[in-house]
Amino acid sequence: MVGLGWWGQKIVRDLTGSQYLQVVLGVDPDKASRERVEGLRTAPAYEDALADPAVDAVILCTPHKFHAEQIVAAALAGKHVFCEKPLTTSGDEARTALAAVAAAGVQLGIGHERRFEPAVMRLRDQCRAGELGTPLVFEGNFSQDKFLALPPDNWRLSDRDAPVGPLSATGIHLVDLAIALFGPPVEVWARLSTLATSFANGDTLTVTMGFEGGQTALITAILTTPFAGRVAVLGSRGWVEIRDRNHPELPRGWDVTTVHRGAEPVSTFYPPHPSVRENIERFARAAAGEVSYPVTHEEMLANVRTFEAITASARSGRVEPVR
Ligand SMILES: NC(=O)c1ccc[n+]([C@@H]2O[C@H](COP(=O)([O-])OP(=O)(O)OC[C@H]3O[C@@H](n4cnc5c(N)ncnc54)[C@H](O)[C@@H]3O)[C@@H](O)[C@H]2O)c1
Questions:
Q1: How many domains are contained in the chain?
Q2: Chain segment 101-111, per-residue pLDDT in tens
């Protein structure tokens, strides 16, 4: 486990007792972070993990700006690599990282655990099977107020280290789900504001994504409103809305409304599910050659290219192509 901050510590806890992988080493240059994790061998430098024969794979839970170089270093050391989102913040970096992984023949995983939520998996099956008719529009909102507790100089509030803060914090998960549904987008329009905090990288983001087939995704991510999580797909014959009861840090289940033309709405509750752990276990099983991993390199690259276009649009105020 590389990076023993908020999310790294959560993953260490989540993976306790996993039958598919064991966390054998924690890496963090920060002594206090290393000391916060009990019962785990730790080291200060990433190279310690890469040189360790007991390490088959690294899980990167580090600031975004390190992801690309750390993926390349893992691939060169012959280690499988699971990287937290965003994979990288520029398309060029993503291409370099993906090429290194492909050349080394190692498995790459990405921290888009929402794909492993049972209600989302069911929704994707319904879309594939045509149960909603033709999927037309994706709507999503992933907002939270956890960053209000961070000191103002934290990297997650920095315009340089985390450009378009609400995007890399939460919105990027919705970008991933929209790409999983409609494929790579061709253009985006984004509006980023700082309305109710002093966050240098914004607190309020809305994005419109346009897809080649004419479909649209509407995404909202706010970092100063209490938790709100909602995903909906509207189709030509019906629609589904998933409401999250809590942040993925501590899932409390999902309330799903399904509507088919001519029928009464149906409400279903999906109980809590450990999607973060399941994503990483799936990565481990894929690395062992047992199963395939559901997020393709093409989708990972499309996500970063979209990230780049959203960042450009937030700065220019214009519709920007996804290059
Ligand atoms: N999938 C999710 O839902 C989810 C949720 C939260 C965070 N994340 C992602 O996890 C990553 C970390 O976010 P966080 O909120 O835990 O940040 P954080 O600041 O709490 O933790 C990052 C840790 O990395 C350490 N670090 C810095 N440079 C390092 C290096 N070169 N090698 C090893 N460790 C280093 C820091 O000392 C710190 O302890 C980000 O990419 C973030 O987007 C994903």
A1: 2
A2: 999 999 999 99
